[in-house]
Design brief:
The protein is an all-alpha fold. The chain has helices at 14-24, 31-47, 54-79, 87-104, 109-134, 138-156, 170-176, 182-209, 217-239, 246-264, 266-276, 278-283, 288-314, 326-336, 348-367, 372-399, and strands at residues 162-164, 178-179, 244-245, 316-318.
């Protein structure tokens, strides 16, 4: 939150007045994408009653995980004002590495999974090395990676073309296992709301003790209530089908943990600082080289995790894994959700909102039997609208001296 908004003595008539002040100043936050998502659900729900059915929404909550994890990694790269074009190929390579080691070579699933994930981390470190040490633009480095890692994946799978995974194995269970006990979904909802309240209250207490601007307790309570309503509504819907999906649980925990890493740790502050300006960050003591390498390592790691979840969803790995529009969907999800292409602005939750928009469009189109070409056009329009809003928001904030 902008510090000016919380300066003691500033007279703002309630939370609505404060919200209007921020919107008028160009601080749109997640409001546009939330309203857009609600509009998408209303439209598709009115056109096909199955869209808002517990079964479809439960499937939607699992479908978003693979691409959503890749988008979370992209958010880290976007925060420093760069882009990673290799994530699709890295996700396909990680899946190929896992399948080859486990199915063809007999390596235990848990070990093959770790090696596959670490392969993405190593690739990210390699990209970061060329980017940070040699000054090669991240765009060029990761474009080369897109081609190279896709080629390596094709080479690994060249003998068989497609490798089927054990449908009862560890990786397959990532997207097929559900916690049928209703207490699991409701417990996660309660835990999420409580965690937000405790984190916000602790932050308020620390800021108040340090004589810094802090949120009013009433605002924290309202925000917590809103989160609780959404969380318990989601839990109710999930319990109407098969319960809480393991994939969704892992996704939410990872996104929340990485959000804490970005917003509550010194490392996260250096990432945002670098996105605000390289030279300014360097003069402030930020280890620019290390931060650049680390965000690409995070992107590679999340891409490999996403690739494993995508392979889990279809219980197979093929030469087409990681190709197609996967890269475009992951990039679009991060940007549509609110991560700025200009750097310095965004959260991991942006990826969640963005992929919900994209996957909701895909799900609605499938139920209405509309060809995928229309889906691509709509998604492209939504992406363009998100970028235009981001540009206008930055211009408005600059005009008012807030950017």
């Amino acid at each position: 939150m902008n510090a000016r908004a919380l300066v003691p003595g500033r007279r703002v008539k309630g939370a609505l007045g404060e919200t209007w002040r921020r919107l008028n100043g160009g601080e749109l936050g997640s409001l546009p994408v939330v309203l857009g998502l609600l509009a998408i659900w209303v439209v598709f729900g009115s056109l096909n009653s199955n869209f808002l059915s517990p079964r479809n929404l439960s499937n939607l909550s699992v479908d978003i995980v693979g691409t959503g994890l890749i988008a979370v990694g992209i958010v880290f790269v976007l925060l420093i004002g760069e882009i990673d074009l290799s994530v699709g190929s890295v996700s396909g390579l990680a899946a190929a590495v896992f399948a080859t080691l486990n199915v063809n070579e007999g390596v235990p699933e848990w070990l093959a999974l770790i090696i596959a994930v670490l392969s993405g981390t190593a690739i990210g470190a390699l990209h970061g090395f060329f980017f940070a040490r040699f000054g090669v633009p991240a765009f060029v480095v990761t474009l080369a990676g897109l081609l190279a890692w896709n080629g390596l994946s094709l080479y690994i799978l060249s003998r068989s073309g497609t490798i089927n995974l054990d449908d009862q194995g560890l990786v397959a269970q990532l997207t097929s296992h559900y916690f049928n006990d209703i207490a699991a979904a409701y417990g996660l909802a309660a835990l999420g709301a409580a965690a937000y309240f405790l984190a916000a209250y602790r932050d308020r207490h620390r800021r108040r003790a340090a004589a810094m601007p802090y949120r009013p307790l009433r605002e924290i309570a309202v925000r917590t209530g809103a989160i609780a309503v959404v969380a318990f509504a989601a839990a109710y819907v999930l319990n109407q089908f098969q319960g809480l999906p393991l994939a969704l649980l892992i996704f939410v925990v990872l996104v929340a943990a990485l959000d804490v890493l970005l917003r509550r740790t010194p490392y996260g502050r250096t990432v945002y600082a670098l996105g605000g300006g390289v030279e300014a960050a360097r003069r402030a003591g930020v280890r620019v080289t290390w931060v650049r390498i680390s965000v690409l390592m995070m992107s590679g790691t999340m891409a490999s995790l996403g690739g494993l979840f995508l392979a889990s969803r279809i219980t197979s790995v093929s030469q087409s894994s990681g190709s197609g529009i996967l890269l475009l969907n992951a990039l679009a999800a991060a940007v549509i959700g609110g991560a700025s292409l200009f750097g310095g602005h965004g959260r991991t939750w942006c990826a969640v909102l963005g992929i919900l928009v994209i996957q909701s469009i895909a799900s609605g189109m499938a139920l209405l039997s509309i060809q995928s070409a229309v889906q691509f056009m709509i998604t492209g329009g939504v992406l363009l609208a998100a970028v235009v809003l981001d540009s206008l928001s930055r211009r408005s904030q600059k005009t008012r001296g807030r950017a």
